Amino acid sequence: MAKPISLLLNICYLFTCLSMNSQASDYVRPPPRRIITTLHQQSDSHPQQVHISLVGRDHMRVSWITDDKSVPSVVEYGKIPGKYGSLATGEHTSYRYFFYTSGKIHHVKIGPLDSGTIYYYRCGQVGDEFSFKTPPATFPVEFVVAGDLGQTEWTASTLAHIKSSVYDVLLLPGDLSYADNQQPLWDTFGRFVTPLASHRPWMVTQGNHEIEKIPIIGPQEFKSYNTRWQMPFQESGSNSNLYYSFDVAGAHIIMLGSYTNFDVESAQYKWLEADLAKVDRVKTPWLIVLLHAPWYNTNTAHQGEGESMREAMEELLYKARVDLVFAGHVHAYERFTRVFNNSANPCGALHVTIGDGGNREGLALLFKTPTSPLSLFREASFGHGRLRVVNGTHAHWSWHRNDDSDSKIRDEVWIENLSKRCCACEDLPLTAANDEL
């Protein structure tokens, strides 16, 4: 009886996807897969949940957790395997969430580091040796973009495809563990992503699944996220881990918070305004923004949820000539033309929704019809994206769909930088824009 039911489900998926997307092929979109539980099977002092993140121009933050509270918050590192000529001491913390108590959470900033260099490191003076490569100082540089990850079999497929090709930094526009108040899922997620997150810097921002606030009785919102995934907000002049910025090679990247105040009187708005004013498009010609709830969306899921933030902040991004805006939340892929104020505009940002990393909730299969002329490509499949910034004027974007053991490019486009194409000191009239160069 199971086979006929499975066949019927596949037929339903195929019929739905063919009807929703004029660019669909005969590819049958699969249903969600099970959550993977990654256990810690080593000693209490052994470092687990290791991940790294960029801090300033030439430093890296190493974060990890131990069950043994006596392990020191130190990182030994060097350029030769097994030989650590440098040692840095950091800080540690922990938190309680109802009846759950976290392990000892270590955060250690190491550096200064040379760009484009492989370093070997050990956490807490025990356990395994890890390694990472620092990003290059100049172009080209390659970013992986993957949103709404979770920890399912589809997530494992996405991460395997990401790992199979060279990249410099992973950008995650929200929804990491899908713990949703179940704190042990933060631990299993940290162990699950360690092979990649300990090897290349992961720069993240929060999604709705990181809020974890229960009305009246609940703990402070974002408590788990802020404690575990510390980002370089202070270095960018922000007073909140929920929004910050950083530079990589010639790109200035801004991570915004969709679930903290963003109106014109908010601290986030004022910080964004000040941060954009300091951007030097000669030194960092590329200006990229990540947030969770998309401002443009033709999927029937989560319609309008990013609209109030768009109304508050889009003009700031437009006047600064932001090149790209990446969002998650909608569990599908969609690429728009350059747009501003709901109209095509050659000097507006190119918006991409990429909330298809492998979450446990499944795909958002239904798109609105007829197709909006602003939406150039859309498909509900699991996958990830790659942005290769070749130089100060051009970058290549590609979206890779998960297809069992293979990763197939389903959408790609060359993008021209706006810092020279559109002068930031003058607003061009709203005119129709063609597909990217």
Describe the model.
With 437 residues, the chain is of the alpha+beta class. Helix content is 18%, strand content 30%. It contains seven helices and 24 strands. Strands 14, 15, 16, 17, 18, 19, 20 and 21 form an eight-stranded mixed β-sheet that branches. Strand 14 (244-248) and strand 15 (251-255) form a beta hairpin. The radius of gyration is 21 Å and the shape is globular. Mean pLDDT is 90; it is low at 1-25 and 425-437.
How many angstroms does the end-to-end distance come to?
Answer: 52 Å
User: What percent strand?
Assistant: 25-35%
Using only C-alpha atoms, the radius of gyration works out to 21 Å
Low-pLDDT regions? 1-25, 425-437
Based on secondary structure, the structural category is alpha+beta
- Overall average residue pLDDT: 90
- The coarse silhouette is globular
Helical content (DSSP H or I, runs of 4+):
10-25%
Number of strands: 24
Number of helices: 7
**Could you describe the largest sheet, including whether it forms a barrel?**
8 strands, mixed
Identify the notable features of this structure and list them briefly.
437 residues, alpha+beta, six-stranded mixed β-sheet, 7 helices, 30% strand, globular, disordered C terminus
